[in-house]
Write a structure and sequence with these properties.
The chain is of the alpha/beta class. Helices cover 30% and strands 18% of the residues. The chain has helices spanning 16-21, 51-54, 78-83, 96-111, 114-123, 147-158, 185-188, 211-216, 234-242, 284-301; strands at 2-6, 25-29, 45-48, 65-68, 87-89, 139-143, 162-167, 178-181, 194-197, 221-225, 246-251, 271-273.
Length: 304
């Protein structure tokens, strides 16, 4: 297969000989926004992240294979690729462990008031805080039960939480106390202490967590979003935080990225805010290469 590989796969150079031995012909594009190193009708397969944000998908007339380096599909026109019969793979499982650790760490930071103690340490002041919370016994609802959601469930369950999953395709899974269909989300929210979002951004999930659903959460609940910003109605979330209905939020993604400097979220004491960074971990490179190579080996065997 004629492969265009972008810099989104940082370790590609180390695997070129292996790819060529499988019968793939490879061309590299270090920066996805740069001019293509080949005619757009040359690649039969691409390994990329946001390539089609800079180069029209319609120009890639020979395309039949796409490997994304992201877990999400929101940077490609998935319906169009499917219509054309293009096989599309994502980086399933690559970023799940660091994202799950991030979600757990964020909730613990809020429950244990780490910002308060960090500020007191900076001031060299010995001040106790009597409002620390325990994670054990809490009810966690994970919206989206793919690889990331499942890794989150395992970690929160290990801390003694009751973990419910909500998914379009409910199933039995030992990582969860129960996985329920999306239609039962509203019934679960009033008993949810921690609402954790790990689902993909689609037309159906955009704005899914709106003002009405935030209002169904009990006072003192925490929202964690490591999915995509537009899954949550950000203005409604701001109002819930300002009103004190939510105890806090752990936010790694936002409706607009980078988050505008004038957003009130920056200065909220009960918000842990990070710049779409939860996926970072030292094992990502090896995991991503393993996923890419396994998929390409299968493609070579199938003579795609």
């Amino acid at each position: 297969m004629k492969l265009l590989i972008t810099g989104a796969w940082a370790d590609a150079q180390a695997h070129l000989a292996e790819l060529e031995a499988l019968g793939h012909r490879c061309v590299l594009l270090p920066q996805e926004a740069d001019p293509l190193p080949c005619p757009p009708d040359w690649p039969e397969g691409v390994i990329c992240n946001g390539l089609f944000l800079h180069h029209p998908l319609g120009d890639f007339t020979a395309l039949r294979y796409v490997q994304l380096t992201s877990a999400g599909f929101d940077r490609v026109d998935l319906p169009e690729l499917r219509r054309r019969g293009v096989r599309v793979h994502n980086a399933r499982g690559v970023y799940s462990a660091p994202m799950a650790e991030f979600a757990l760490a964020g909730v613990l930071a809020l429950y244990k008031q780490l910002r308060f103690f960090t500020d007191r340490q900076r001031e060299r002041r010995w001040v106790k805080h009597r409002g620390l919370l325990e994670l054990g016994g809490r009810t966690v609802t994970i919206l989206g039960c793919g690889s990331v959601g499942t890794e989150c469930a395992r970690r929160f369950a290990a801390f003694g939480c009751r973990v419910f999953g909500v998914d379009l395709f409910p199933r039995q899974d030992p990582a969860f106390s129960e996985v329920r269909p999306l239609a039962e989300l509203d019934a679960l929210l009033p008993e949810t202490d921690i609402l954790l979002l790990t689902l993909p951004l689609t037309p159906e999930t955009r704005g899914l967590v709106d003002a009405a659903r935030l209002a169904r959460l009990p006072a003192g609940a925490v929202l964690v979003n490591i999915a995509r910003g537009p899954v949550v109605a950000e203005a409604a979330l701001l109002r819930a935080l300002e009103a004190g209905r939510l105890a806090g939020a752990v936010l790694d993604v936002f409706e607009t990225e980078p988050l505008p400097a004038d957003s009130p979220l920056w200065s909220m004491e009960n918000v842990i805010l990070t710049p779409h960074n939860s996926f970072v971990g030292p094992g990502n490179g090896a995991r991503l290469s393993q996923v890419i190579l396994e998929n390409l080996r299968a493609a070579a065997e199938e003579r795609l």
